[in-house]
Design brief:
20% of the residues lie in helices and 31% in strands. It is built from 6 helices and 18 strands.
């Protein structure tokens, strides 16, 4: 789905934020370019990332090229295990950006998946929408299918929902339910509202249980569905609107 970014020519925002709002790059990348003297506003080099500008009215150039507001785009990928959720890696390891088709605008991830995790990852250049979706008060649920190296019982599921103390934090699942079980391992579904760094792995480690696979299968009302591993597609208008409305995936 694409939609045109709305601009307010009278409202001033900081230069780094303006470049991000226009879908040119992330705010951190913009800050680096500004401090390096690569950004001009109305023909004058500006090195202060908070230089006030009017998006759509002031002329902004990066490295000699004019920057205009881009159409907002929203994509999803099915991230394989071992792929990094980052634009660049100093060790040259493969990142999720290699999964996107050539020619798409710059996009940032809406939340992250660690290297060992897989599944649904959303990317967009609509930074305000992304911030709204990931804000704790939005209560957008993230649904995971998790294979653990143990036979789960109701006690474990209840403990995950009640909360596990790990690293000085109380970590809890919104819901934890059975999916299927084998003789030595179990697939469970875990739903989170506020995902903290490595939260599921840390919760289960706190219960003495190891994670074999961790797959995110839903974010709000958006499902991973039949998207093949390593595949990418644009979100539909309805999917973007479901996330806006806070609708949830129910498997």
């Amino acid at each position: 789905m694409r939609r045109r970014g709305a601009t307010d020519a009278e409202k001033k925002v900081g230069l780094a934020r303006a470049l991000s709002k226009m879908g040119f790059c992330s705010r951190s990348d913009a800050a680096e370019k500004i401090r390096a003297g690569l950004v001009k506003v109305n023909g004058v080099v500006r090195r202060d990332i908070e230089t006030p500008v009017r998006v759509g009215r002031d002329k902004i150039e990066v490295d000699g090229r004019g920057v205009a507001a881009k159409e907002f785009v929203y994509w999803m990928v099915n991230k394989p295990r071992g792929i990094l959720t980052t634009a660049e890696d100093e060790k040259g390891r493969e990142t999720v950006y290699a999964l996107l088709p050539k020619g798409v605008p710059w996009m940032g991830p809406v939340g992250r998946l660690d290297k060992a995790s897989e599944g649904l990852l959303i990317l967009t250049n609509d930074t305000e929408w992304a911030a709204r979706i990931t804000a704790p008060e939005s209560h957008v649920e993230k649904t995971y299918a998790v294979q653990i190296g143990a036979v789960a019982d109701e006690t474990l599921l209840a403990k995950l929902e009640a909360g596990v103390m790990e690293g000085g934090e109380s970590l809890r699942a919104t819901r934890a339910t059975f999916l299927r079980a084998g003789k030595k391992n179990t697939w469970i579904e875990i739903v989170l509202e506020e995902g903290r760094n490595r939260q599921i792995r840390r919760m289960l480690e706190g219960c003495g249980v190891g994670v074999l696979r961790l797959i995110r299968v839903g974010i709000g009302g958006v499902e991973l569905g039949e998207l093949k591993k390593g595949g990418a597609r644009e979100l539909t208008r309805n999917e973007v609107q479901m996330l806006d409305r806070g609708e949830h995936f129910r498997g």
